[in-house]
């Protein structure tokens, strides 16, 4: 994706639709900052070129090689932040696993059959129980209102 020399002053939210990009060139743009969430989901990105005024997203630890090429930084070979030594591993909760979510970003995905906040709930959502209670309450309230409001209805 070549966005070089496009007079970009900031990274557009529409960039989030290009998460499958492998190469991204943002050079020769008057960019001053890259918002922290600009590259969420860019797990396939292998080459990123940014102006010298910026730095590679995630820092130099998020890339295998960071070099200067003329007036830009070349960030090459995105590293998986989950594949580090045990002392530096990301603290995902129990019943979950670490997964890369872009340069220097991680997400914790729940192992099956766990779900919910911090992957503490096991099994599936009780759809029948929830639907039964909601349906019974709705029908009961409807009948109550129909019965109490019926006397106020005008007959022709």
Automatic annotation (TrEMBL):
Domain of life according to the entry: Eukaryota
Keyword tRNA processing: no
Keyword terms of this UniProt record: Membrane, Transmembrane, Transmembrane helix
InterPro entries for this protein: ATRAID, EGF, LRR_dom_sf
GO annotation, biological process: positive regulation of osteoblast differentiation
Transmembrane segments: 125-146
Residue span(s) of domain EGF-like: 108-119
SUPFAM superfamilies: L domain-like
Protein name: ARAID factor
Native organism: Sakesphorus luctuosus
UniProt gene name: Atraid
């Amino acid at each position: 994706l070549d966005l070089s020399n496009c007079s970009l002053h900031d990274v557009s939210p529409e960039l989030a639709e290009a998460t499958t990009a492998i190469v991204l060139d943002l050079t020769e743009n008057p960019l001053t900052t890259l918002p922290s969430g600009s590259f969420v989901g860019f797990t396939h990105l292998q080459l990123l070129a940014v102006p010298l005024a910026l730095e590679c997203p995630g820092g130099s630890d998020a890339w295998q090689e960071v070099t200067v090429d003329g007036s830009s930084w070349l960030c090459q070979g995105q590293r998986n932040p989950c594949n580090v030594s045990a002392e530096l591993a990301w603290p995902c909760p129990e019943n979950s696993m670490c997964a890369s979510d872009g340069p220097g970003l991680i997400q914790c995905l729940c192992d099956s059959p766990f779900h919910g906040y911090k992957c503490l709930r096991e099994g599936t959502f009780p759809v029948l129980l929830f639907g039964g209670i909601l349906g019974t309450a709705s029908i009961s309230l409807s009948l109550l209102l129909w019965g109490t409001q019926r006397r106020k209805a005008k007959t022709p």
